[in-house]
Every structure is written in C-alpha cells, then in structure tokens.
Write a structure and sequence with these properties.
- This protein has 6 helices and 6 strands, in the order αααββαβαββαβ.
- By secondary structure, the chain is an alpha/beta fold.
- It is globular.
C-alpha cells in the first residue's frame, strides 16, 4: 500500500513540475529499487530471470510464437502458457525455453486448440480476471502480492512465485477462485523457505 501511495504522490509531483524528465527517471529508479527490495528473490535471481525471459521471448519471436505464448520465469523455473494450433508449435516453444542456460525446469501449460476457438473477447475476459485478482491481492495486508505472478488463459489462472507460508498461499488461491469467470487455479508457487528454491 505504501508503494502505491508513493507512486501516486510522485505522479502528482510530475504533473505539477516542469522537471518532468528528471522526476520520471527518479520515479522509475525508486519504484524499481522498492520493488526489488520487497521481493523474496535476490537481485541476482531477478536479473537472471529477466534476462531469461528476454531470451525466451526472442526465440519465440523468431519462431512466430511470441504473440500466442507468454513465458514467466521465477528462479530459473519457466512457465509457458497460451494457445497454439498445433502440437509442433507447443513443442517448439518448450525447446526454446530449454535452450536457455540456467533453466532448472520448464512447465509447459500451452494448450493446443483450433485458432478460431480463441477470440478477442476471451482474451479480454482473461485480462480482466487477471487484473481483478491482482487488485484483490494488493488490498490484502497479510499477502506479499509482489511475490506473485498471475496469468489467466481461457479462465484458468496460473500462479507462480514465492509464498511466505501455507496460510498465505491458501489465501491467494481462495481469492483467485472467488473471481467471476475463473474455471480453475493452477499453482506453481514455492514456499519462501523451501529447499527446492536452492
């Protein structure tokens, strides 16, 4: 909540100031530093994960899959989600992910469906579901929402990230399930003190 308040205050100052460029640079740097320190991942992990996402996206783009597949990375674990029209495209995306150095695991949740089945309306509904879940998580003080990645494909919500404990993860899943339009919640979240993280 403090982060949102700080961002809104900074935005107000930007609109009231002639030094827009300087303020925007400072705002971005402050927001980035705050976000990094609030996460339960090391700076090295954040940099490695970001670099991995960029490389995977570049590979997906090369194969014409970037627009239909999302790649999410958490501590070297790659989650692939989206819709493609052939199993070959699904396999190609997985090969792209495994082709990156330091990949520990690839979770392939790409669905093979006829292209006409996926509509703009479905994509919009999925986006609204994701946005609502993220908003609800932000409003809960007992949930460290910055540690979670939330994505929705065809009404299925995929969670990835780091939970403080079982109670927090249970609360996150419960929130996601209560959002209208959610068919299923799939969790790839790991606990903060899990041995699997190291």
């Amino acid at each position: 909540m403090r982060l949102i308040t700080s961002l809104l205050l900074a935005l107000f100052l930007i609109t009231q100031s002639g030094c827009t460029t300087l303020l925007i640079g400072g705002l971005v740097a402050t927001a980035t530093a705050t976000a990094i320190t609030m996460q339960d991942k090391s700076l090295g992990n954040i940099i490695d994960d970001t670099a991995m996402v960029i490389k995977i996206n570049k590979g997906l783009l090369k194969h014409g899959l970037f627009s239909s597949i999302k790649a999410k990375v958490s501590e070297g674990r790659v989650l692939l989600i989206g819709n493609v029209d052939t199993p070959e495209k699904q396999l190609t995306a997985e090969k792209v992910a495994w082709g990156q150095k330091e990949v520990k695991e690839v979770i392939n949740e790409i669905r093979v469906t006829p292209i006409h089945m996926s509509s703009i309306l479905d994509t919009t509904v999925d986006g609204l579901i994701t946005a609502e879940i993220k908003t609800r998580l932000l409003s809960k003080r007992n949930i460290k929402s910055i540690n979670y990645s939330v994505n929705t494909i065809d009404g299925v919500v995929y969670l990835m990230g780091i939970a403080q404990d079982k109670a927090e993860l249970k609360a996150v899943i419960a929130i996601a399930r209560k959002v209208k339009g959610v068919k299923q919640v799939v969790s790839y979240v790991r606990y903060r003190h899990s041995k699997l993280r190291h």
